[in-house]
Each structure stands twice: as C-alpha cells, then as structure tokens.
C-alpha cells in the first residue's frame, strides 16, 4: 500500500510540474520570444496593413494612398497613378527591415548619425495608426543605415540598404506606362507615317476545322495586312511590335499647364502615329522628335494627358516598313493547305502527295515513306523566310542564278491550283538568291535548305528497307 501511495505522490508531483511548465513557463517563453522579435522589427506595422505612405526628401514630398480598389495613387504634389512595383518594393524593405542594435536609447546629439538633417523621412500609415522613420547616414558597413523612430526616439542601426530607400522622387513613384495595351486583346493596328500607312487586322484562320469557340480564341487568329496590299503578316514581328508598345515607359512628364501647351503647339507632324483597336475602343499614340540632334523625343496619347518624354530609340523601333511586317515565308502557302509538292533540283525530281495526312511519292504510291523525315523537309520548304530584299520587282534573273535554278519547289493546294512556288538560285556567304510566290521581288535567304533536300531513298522508311534486305 505504501508503494502505491508513493507512486500516486510522484504522479501528482509530475502533473504539477507539467501544469507549471504549460501554464507558466511556456507562455512566458513565448512572450519573451515575441518581445525579442518585436524589438528587432523596424516597424510594428505589417505590409498588408499599410494604407498610406509619405516620403520626404531634400527634393520634395510625395504622398501616396491606397484607393478603394487597393491601387496606389499619388495624391500630392499632384494626383496621378502610382507605380505599384516601386511603392511595394519600398514598403517591403521597411516592413522586413530589422534593427541590428540600439545605438542610443535617448540620443543627445543626432548629427553624428546623420539624423539632425535626415536624408529621408518616411511616414507609414495603417488606418488611424502611423509611424515616422527618419533615415540618416550609412552605418559601419555600406548595407546598413542609422534610423530613428518618432515613437521612441531611439537611435537604431538597421539592415536597410541605402539603394532601397534613398533617391526616391516623384518620378520614381509615378506610373510610367505610356499606352495601356493588351497585345492579346488587340485586333486592329494602324501605323501612319508622313508618306504612307500600314493597316493590320487579326482574323480567324481560313479553313479552321475546330469547334466555333476554338476558332474565336486568340491562338487561332492570325494577323493580316489589309493596306497598302492584302497579304499575310509576320506574326512574330507584329506581336513584338505590340509588346514594345505595352512596355513603352516614360522617362519624364510634362503635365498640363503653360509648358505643356507651348510644346503641344509645336508637335504637329508625328514621325509615326499608332492606333490600336482593343475591345470597342481605339488607343492612339503619336511619337515626335523635333530635333534629332537634341536627343529628345516625345509621346502624346491625348491632348489633355501629360506629354511623355521617351527614349528616342523607340521611334526607330516602332517605325516599321511594309517588308518588316509582311509574312516573309517565300513559298506562299501553309503546310496544311498543300495537297502536292513538286521538288526539282539539277540532280533529281519527284512529287510528294499529301494522302490523308501521310506523304507518299506520286510515282511510287505503295512505297512506305519515313513520315517524320518527309514532314521535316516539307516544313523547311514552307517556312523558309526571306532575309534580305535584293530587288523589289523581279527583273533579269540570270545575275542571281534564277534563270537556271539550283532548286525549285511548286505547291498545289487542295483546290487543285498552284498556290505556292519557291525558286533558289546561286548562293554566296551562307545566303542564296530566292524568289517566291509569297513575296514580290528577289531576295536572299539562308542557303541551308539546298543541303537538306532529301533524295527519294532518304525518304523511304528504314523499316521497309531493312525488311527488303532480310528477304
């Protein structure tokens, strides 16, 4: 009985110790840990709580606020959209910033730390709460800063990097997008130059065999040139142009006022006017360079918006001649539209027929071909692009070796008509002179195709060849 009593007593003692640890020691330790973490944080406000930010430097003060849609807006010294990436980067640096050590609890002199005349004063608001942080000189290392909070007046050494918090101006925080364009929603594009104009439309692919909802998707629409001629467009070139428009950023602003009006009166003849149709609206951009020697270029969207200073190189980037935007594939027909492809070189001649998606030789229809090899070859013929335009309108062919071609390809469409033709002439320096039904004129293209034309034997299935040898 005594042994049982001793066991019960020990169990009660252990239970008491566990209760003490659980109810007294652990909460105390948690509170201590939380206090230590809180002491190390530069701000007691979390990033998601912040609703306002004021940045004051020697060049002025910028006030930013979150609007009802949770978008950042500049409210002073002017009203404008803010660049969310710049605002969020600064807030993230502040809220993740740590106090390395407390240098002085109550500083008698602020000058030794650069805090008598701080380089920047930041006020962070979270509803009714706010904290003001003064930032001074760099600490013992270049990636640290001295700081002082208004709430406790302690001199702190922080892990803030000067590059993350200094040199922030109104231009830094201002949204610099010039034209709000979604390349995937744009269906018309007009480029107007002083002496010419190019008009492009994005249309459904002709003969699309999928369901109607798929035919209407962005992936199944192709850009076409409507003017000055009707022809296919270089899809990559047009998409790149739209991405350049989307990424166009201002490097400065001339806001409405006397200076704006005076400059606008001089901007009368744009180097290029670009009209983007998106949804049910047109967005227009005009680019100007009054004096190329000055290195200044301007962009105007509407007369009541700011005039944007832009990099003058963008004018050359967005000024495209017709050839640059054309589909530069020379053959002039897509692979899926080919019913028959005639191949002729100085050494051989044969015809490939598209028979229900499989390629066969016209004179040996029972012969099994290597479909992968045939597909690769036909794709190379179809996709060969012009690299350099030599002559706009075809004239004498002999100087280019086109009167006696080194290779000639003729494509017949599913309607039985000739829909594509490609002729290769003499080659030099890795390029070959070429003419094609897809483009008017004489061009130079990559000469690789001349060495990639397979003989009939190369097109035949290897399995069939092995089987024949076994017999």
Characterization of this structure:
This protein is of the alpha+beta class and 471 residues long. The protein has 3 domains: 47-173, no CATH class; 186-325, no CATH class; 335-465, no CATH class. It is built from 12 helices and 26 strands. The N and C termini lie far apart (100 Å).
Task: Write a short abstract of this structure.
With 471 residues, the protein is an alpha+beta fold. It has helices at 2-40, 84-96, 162-165, 170-173, 212-215, 235-246, 258-264, 313-318, 322-325, 371-383, 456-459, 462-470, and strands at 52-57, 60-66, 72-76, 80-81, 99-104, 120-126, 129-138, 145-149, 155-158, 186-192, 197-204, 221-227, 231-232, 252-254, 272-278, 281-288, 297-300, 307-310, 338-345, 349-355, 358-361, 386-391, 407-413, 418-428, 431-436, 439-446. The protein has a nine-stranded antiparallel β-sheet, with no helix packed on it.
Number of individual domains: 3
| Relative strand content | 25-35%
Helical residue percent band: 25-40%
Strand order of the largest sheet: 4-3-2-1-6-7-8-9-5
Q: How many beta-strand runs?
A: 26
Radius of gyration: 36 Å
Short key terms for the protein model shown above:
471 residues; alpha+beta; 3 domains; nine-stranded antiparallel beta sheet; 26 strands; 25% helix; disordered C terminus
């Amino acid at each position: 009985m005594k042994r049982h009593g001793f066991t019960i007593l020990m169990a009660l003692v252990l239970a008491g110790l566990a209760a003490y640890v659980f109810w007294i020691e652990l909460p105390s330790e948690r509170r201590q840990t939380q206090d230590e973490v809180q002491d190390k944080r530069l701000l007691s406000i979390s990033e998601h709580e912040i609703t306002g930010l004021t940045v004051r430097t020697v060049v002025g003060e910028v006030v930013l606020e979150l609007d009802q849609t949770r978008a950042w807006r500049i409210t002073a010294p002017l009203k404008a959209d803010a660049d969310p990436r710049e605002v969020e980067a600064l807030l993230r640096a502040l809220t993740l910033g740590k106090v390395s050590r407390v240098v002085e609890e109550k500083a008698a002199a602020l000058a030794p730390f650069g805090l008598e005349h701080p380089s920047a004063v930041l006020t962070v608001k979270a509803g009714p709460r706010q904290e003001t942080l003064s930032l001074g000189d760099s600490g013992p290392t270049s990636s640290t800063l001295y700081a002082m909070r208004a709430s406790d007046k302690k001199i702190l050494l922080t892990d803030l990097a000067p590059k993350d918090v200094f040199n922030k101006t109104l231009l830094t925080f201002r949204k610099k997008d010039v034209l709000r364009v979604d390349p995937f929603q744009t269906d018309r594009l007009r480029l107007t130059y002083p002496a010419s104009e190019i008009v492009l439309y994005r249309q459904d692919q002709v003969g699309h065999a999928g369901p109607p909802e798929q035919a209407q998707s962005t992936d199944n629409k192709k850009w076409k040139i409507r003017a000055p001629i009707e022809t296919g467009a270089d899809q990559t070139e047009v998409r790149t142009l739209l991405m350049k428009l989307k990424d166009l950023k201002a490097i400065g602003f001339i806001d409405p006022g006397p200076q704006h009006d005076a400059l606008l009166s001089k901007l009368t003849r744009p180097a290029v006017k670009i009209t983007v149709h998106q949804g049910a609206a047109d967005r227009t951009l005009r680019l100007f360079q009054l004096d190329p020697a000055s290195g200044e270029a301007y962009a105007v969207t509407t007369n009541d918006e700011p005039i944007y200073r832009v990099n003058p190189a963008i004018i050359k980037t967005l000024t495209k001649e017709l050839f640059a935007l054309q589909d530069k594939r020379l053959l002039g027909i897509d692979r899926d539209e080919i019913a028959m492809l005639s191949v002729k070189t100085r050494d051989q001649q044969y015809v490939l027929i598209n028979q229900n998606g499989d390629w066969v030789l016209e004179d040996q229809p029972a012969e099994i071909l290597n479909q992968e090899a045939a597909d690769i070859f036909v794709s190379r013929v179809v996709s060969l692009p012009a690299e350099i335009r030599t002559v706009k309108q075809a004239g004498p062919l002999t100087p280019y070796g086109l009167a006696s071609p080194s290779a000639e390809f003729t494509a017949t469409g599913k309607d039985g008509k000739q829909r594509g033709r490609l002729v290769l002439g003499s080659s030099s320096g890795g390029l070959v002179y070429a003419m094609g039904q897809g483009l008017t004129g004489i061009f130079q293209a990559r000469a690789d195709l001349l060495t990639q034309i397979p003989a009939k034997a190369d097109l035949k299935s290897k399995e069939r060849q092995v089987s024949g040898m076994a017999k």
